[in-house]
Design brief:
With 117 residues, this protein is mainly β. The protein has a single domain, classed as Jelly Rolls (Sandwich). 0% of the residues lie in helices and 61% in strands. Strands 1, 2, 3, 4, 5, 6, 7, 8, 9 and 10 form a ten-stranded antiparallel beta sheet that branches. It holds the Pfam family Cupin_7.
Length: 117
Amino acid sequence: MHTDIQHYITHSSQQEWQPLIEKGIHYKGIFVKSLRYDEASQRSKTILLKFEPGATYPYHNHPAGEELLVLSGEAIIEQASLSEGDYLYTPPGFKHSVSSPTGCILLFIVPEEVEIL
């Protein structure tokens, strides 16, 4: 374990937004910044997602659940509207899609990779 706190800090404002591409699929209008990359699983488990107005992420499953915090804008998840400051926990096996009519930035904690359905 590193003992220098700097090793554990991510300066997200210094990162560029990257297009969201998963398993070769480019999700247009959705961008990502990795906040915590897990070496053991070879994937980011804590991320920022930016949705441009009108962007959608398809119906999917969260095998290990997820946590989501809306940092700005509005997200629609299963017909529920979430806005700045709203928090959502979904239990393992919860299935849903995500859209944003106005655009938004979301903080996601995703213990396991999602499964597109």
